[in-house]
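TEACHING EXERCISE
Course module: macromolecular assemblies
Task: Read the component lines below, then compare them to the predicted structure of the full complex.
Student: A.B.
Group: 4
Components provided:
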Amino acid sequence: MIYFHNDYSEGCHERILKKLTQTNLEQTPGYGTDNYCAEAAMLIRKACGREDLAVHFLVGGTQANLTVIDAALRPHQGAIGAVSAHINAHETGAVEATGHKVIGLPSLDGKITAEQVRRTVEAHWASDSFEHTVQPKLVYISNPTELGTLYSLAELEALSAVCREKRLYLFLDGARLGYGLAAKGNDVTLHDIARLCDVFYIGGTKVGALFGEAVVISNPAIGEDFRYLVKQHGGMLAKGRLLGLQFQALFEDGLYFEIAAHADELADQIRSTLDEIGAPYLVPGVTNQIFPILPDNFLEELGKNFMFTEQERVDAHHRAVRFCTSWATTQENVDALCAEFRRLAGN
Amino acid sequence: MIYFHNDYSEGCHERILKKLTQTNLEQTPGYGTDNYCAEAAMLIRKACGREDLAVHFLVGGTQANLTVIDAALRPHQGAIGAVSAHINAHETGAVEATGHKVIGLPSLDGKITAEQVRRTVEAHWASDSFEHTVQPKLVYISNPTELGTLYSLAELEALSAVCREKRLYLFLDGARLGYGLAAKGNDVTLHDIARLCDVFYIGGTKVGALFGEAVVISNPAIGEDFRYLVKQHGGMLAKGRLLGLQFQALFEDGLYFEIAAHADELADQIRSTLDEIGAPYLVPGVTNQIFPILPDNFLEELGKNFMFTEQERVDAHHRAVRFCTSWATTQENVDALCAEFRRLAGN
Amino acid sequence: MIYFHNDYSEGCHERILKKLTQTNLEQTPGYGTDNYCAEAAMLIRKACGREDLAVHFLVGGTQANLTVIDAALRPHQGAIGAVSAHINAHETGAVEATGHKVIGLPSLDGKITAEQVRRTVEAHWASDSFEHTVQPKLVYISNPTELGTLYSLAELEALSAVCREKRLYLFLDGARLGYGLAAKGNDVTLHDIARLCDVFYIGGTKVGALFGEAVVISNPAIGEDFRYLVKQHGGMLAKGRLLGLQFQALFEDGLYFEIAAHADELADQIRSTLDEIGAPYLVPGVTNQIFPILPDNFLEELGKNFMFTEQERVDAHHRAVRFCTSWATTQENVDALCAEFRRLAGN
Amino acid sequence: MIYFHNDYSEGCHERILKKLTQTNLEQTPGYGTDNYCAEAAMLIRKACGREDLAVHFLVGGTQANLTVIDAALRPHQGAIGAVSAHINAHETGAVEATGHKVIGLPSLDGKITAEQVRRTVEAHWASDSFEHTVQPKLVYISNPTELGTLYSLAELEALSAVCREKRLYLFLDGARLGYGLAAKGNDVTLHDIARLCDVFYIGGTKVGALFGEAVVISNPAIGEDFRYLVKQHGGMLAKGRLLGLQFQALFEDGLYFEIAAHADELADQIRSTLDEIGAPYLVPGVTNQIFPILPDNFLEELGKNFMFTEQERVDAHHRAVRFCTSWATTQENVDALCAEFRRLAGN
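Instructor-supplied answer key:
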């Protein structure tokens, strides 16, 4: 069985493992106050082109999302996001458990628009009983989205502009950020994200690390006392250096971008083959996630040797499924998958 | 200016005021442990036809909703309701502030169906990552709904059946329950509600009381330690008898139903006149709330002498608005409104 | 049976009841946006000597406490109070239910000192792992305290000074504030309180109203968006005028102070008699609560005709109990109580 | 500089690192559903002598504490613990952030007694306003405690008995459990803990793992839907196998006990030397934490070459400090420390 069902099936990239091994017996202070964390933060600030960013390393994505949103909002305020947003659909109500409503906006491709945000905020304030509804205060987007789609620079700038005009925070969930930055056609850089967002995170778990997300805060209103909130929500690792070491490995010589480029290139090969056999997509994509729509019997055959994820039923005889590539995906396995696609399509 | 814009513009029905006045200097124990509360609870149990119901008097509707839902759910569980449900749209995220997600279902008329509930619950459990989403555990409905529509007995029985099959609680918000029970064509009784719901409340604030809602609990799993939760959420009145006295007045000789019948009858007169002038409705109704769609210039004229509530814009020249009747609405004012309708319609 | 066991056994002062009755059929806008609330807020601002105070009317004390504290604190911050503070001991964890720790300081008389606050805050910041403990951010005091004791102006000024130096909020719970302001020897005025505290409330429930507390906010950081929080916590009354009307009655011609002076004067008579018979006190007092220590057999006899509250056992043969006076206490009943004291003491 | 200041300064035991390395490229399902987690859970059940225990792997101790307590309590219930308990003093109010009060009991040695629990619970129910205070429902203890002390089997049995009599849960925080189990004089086994507690956890972070705590649940009332709560609180690792692999390494051939025995043995050597030079202790101990009281000038000299933790000032010239040993502490370093003790003591 060859796995394409997600990007977190293996451990971590060998250069990360090597660094963890080499430093294993070193003694460092706890709770993220060690030099590795400091060094990794410095590398990330450099990659973002700004000296004034606060960087905190958290264990996972749900934790990063709930901690950031809890830090940013007062009790009566809520977070705007797509109905399909990870915080709305896949985190067991983690944001609500901190007391805040997620205000879901409809979206077919996982993205929300500046115009949607504007309308939502203006409708709130136009109500003559606005104090009876949750005040929108933060916009949550993920890039790439849960459906693998990407925001263009123009879209991101428009979102940022409406947030600043309306005094909302813009928060970008970058659980798979690397795959977006490295994708063909992407025009957004880390510099742009740091400039346009109030807070975002650079995902490690799904981009070659054992675990860990680097939360980057450019707006001091969110960053104040942030470490208290990390501790309170159980996200402060005693051996915090484990996170610093991993992000140091990812950012000290471009490994993060190398990993992402590898996975995106293999995903492009899969997309080419799917195009070749004429498979449509649930949503078009350029990152490491691919969502083709395929016939049930095709998928049944394919499933004998390949693992993928069910996404949704499209009609009586077709389903959308997901294939993922990662740092650990091999050319050999991609070749095998593409060959099987062609065989099953009768090409 | 004649007010039709809501059902809580005045103080309370004279028989309630009289009882409060007559007992004003009596000394009673605090926090709802007095005899008036006991008596009122007994009268409500009798009206519901069951001796085993727990009855608690709370100050207002939002408080009743958040306290009941917080009492019923474990942290990872959520409440299903219409997108337009009061808990989802008009309570500033009170339910989320207790940590629980409101799972919104689409609805055009304010009601949700047993089939919608079934699909939502089955979809949850069918997911291979169900632990990553909020577990649906309670169904919240209001009757009448926010749009004045009513559940039929068959609809309520179907909802109750699917809740019991799927082990969810059914919670009925009766902020305007009287107006539903007294409406023409209604086939649901208090006995039915007590039998079919796990918990519900009988609204006083909008049906003639100064304030107060009587929470009625038939499922002991929700009722256990309920008074702690009332206290914790700031809903336990030191002079608890104020609530007992009001509900005693409402239920000792049928005043509750008398008030509701009066308001519904006047609303029916308004509906007749609207039918006569050919006004369509946003939603058809039988209770004390009326949602006609009228031309902007008609409403502009009408607004010079009558107060009503804006509901929503329907097209470039028409808006849906709301008229409410109550215990305090007079025949004389209804006559004036109907005459103005006819005049403006050119009849 | 003659009741001295609390100050909320009856309804309300006749001038309040009269105002509620006279205005009962008036139509007003809902949710505290009516003119009576505006007028009452203006009267309270005037009584405090400041035009810039925000005034909000809430239903009860627990609700006022939890709403103010939730409005003031970020998630990792806590409220300092006496171990015996109402928020720590008598509100079913209402503050914790909003996510915040109450940091309890030892106190024998219900009061805490500026020095205690200073030490607590300095200890927090001196810790090398301060982010692992709750950050003290608000000081909660009640005046009079739960034991009927009063802060002097000097004590209050010292607390205020340390709070400002250390950037904490000072919050004064005035559930029985009137009885303190009117007490013999008190040197604190409403002007002082408005000047020294960031937020406080003037209790109505225990000082002649049916219910209601007037929250007065002098620090805009706490007041921002406060109405959202009132609504979210279920404290926004649809018929908000009920609160405005009551506080208008209490403040338009000095009724609030008149009521308090009456109760304090009667309590002084009881204290004189207790002094006369040589009864010691759990804590000395000057307000409407009296905490004498009396022999068990004395109390057994007394309990046949008089109702009082058990406070605590002092030794094998003596208990501290509580007597309360209020606006509704009559000279006749006080005379009867004092006579019984003398009779049982064998005087 | 030689470090004795905590037991989490290094990475992990070499056998753990080896297992992580060897399995790095294996593909496993995510979120703790892999075979390594299943295997580790089985080994832990075996070590506890019971087949019916639920085992969940969480990232850290604060997260384990808050998730277990949130799973166990209804909103109005609280957790009893020592004032010095980790949940009360060192977790930034993580338990309060889930809405629950920590009811602190005084303790000089970090332990609480069955008698204290009994008095607390009985006092609650004896109050005539018990619904106005938080209901005690769970007893939290740590073993070893924050001060390195141990519960005897008799003490643990007494606590368990009072909890069962009063229907409270007993929760044992075993962040350093291994060091307790391996200590000289300890008479408590894993079998006892599983039998006497409703839930406990076996700490990995401080006993040789990179990170991770194994929560063991014997009471199904707490275990129901537990994975939802882990996910909601951000504690579910995508690469969950990292936790399974580490606990498999710790429990497959007794490594956990071997590590603990090593550290305890070295700590005993340090204690012997301290006894030899006549140093008193803040609290006597038998585990890997040692709390001697030493003169300031002694500590100043010692601090030039050795790292330890400040605990508290004892008098004008003496401080209590903490020395920790761990799996990574070497005999050589212990010899150096002991030699320095003797040199400074003038022996």
